[in-house]
Write a structure and sequence with these properties.
Elements (H helix, E strand, L loop, with lengths): L4 H5 L12 H12 L6 E4 L6 H13 L7 E4 L7 H12 L10 E5 L7 H13 L4 E7 L7 H6 L1 E4 L5 H14 L3 E2 L1 H11 L3 H12 L4 E2 L1 H8 L4 H12 L3 H14 L4 H11 L7 H19 L5 H15 L4
Parallel strand pairs: 1-4, 1-5, 2-3, 3-4, 6-7
Helix pairs in contact: 2-3, 4-5, 8-9, 8-10, 9-10, 11-12, 11-13, 11-15, 12-15, 13-14, 14-15
Length: 320
Amino acid sequence: MVSSIWTEKYRPNKFSELVGQDNTIKRVEALTNSLNIPHMLFAGPAGTGKSTLALIVVKDLYKENWKENYLELNASDERGINVVREKVKNFARTKSLGDVPFKIIFLDEADALTPEAQQALRRTMENFSSTCRFILSCNYSSKIIDPIQSRCAIFRFKLLEKKDIEKVIKKIVESEHMTIKQESIEILYEGCEGDCRRCINILQSTASISPSITPELVSTIISNTKPRDIRVVLDYALSGDFQKSREKLLDIMLRESISGQDVIKAIQKEIWNLPVEPTIKVKLTEKTGEVEFRMTEGSDPFIPLQSLLASFVLAGLGKE
């Protein structure tokens, strides 16, 4: 995947430019306009706008002086207890420049902080709240200790919907003078699964090959299994032809270099489109979860996948 040049190029700079988190954006914008934000915790999946919203808050508060009043620490930085005690505390204890009476420290991916660092942070948040406010972002709020959560206003982010992803794609396509088909947008959305950053990266990778974004080109970049290919595999299995089903699956995995995890995801989605009873779909979904677990634990992907196909064969014969 090429570097995310477009991710920075098309990063929103205003609250009105953000998409997909309307309620959260309105609440944060209202707090920012009051010039008295609390400590905040942004929790949600990757690529949904947490870091971007934090930057917009800072730039809206401090205008051209935002760099002097802002400290960001990412998961790639060392963030043990010494960093909290020294770097964070030294920045927090000094006064801000400008009219806003506090600075902002942004701890990106705060769920990667060690438990000891989080314990040290709780006191820092209390002692220096008059001169510094914290914005924490994380994928899993359950990994943030309760004392820190109780000190923050919590904002939960959700995966972006198709209409939001489509809006971002069309804006980039127009700016970069590209052409794109609606089917390509559908595949992009399926491939990114609501992660806007991943969507932009895929689009940039595709555009580096051709300015005309076709469904075939997007599928090649994403390297995902095509639903129609998986449907053929499952149709063979349900008809009782285990051998053809197995051969077709092996062909897909070798010809298109698809991983077992991607195959499992595609099968799980396609189960609910099969012409079988709902109770059988539930049992097959359960079996899919078991197979996925075995692959995660280190099993050879093709062996448990054959076991899954055997379950589909039995389901087709009415024995599952």
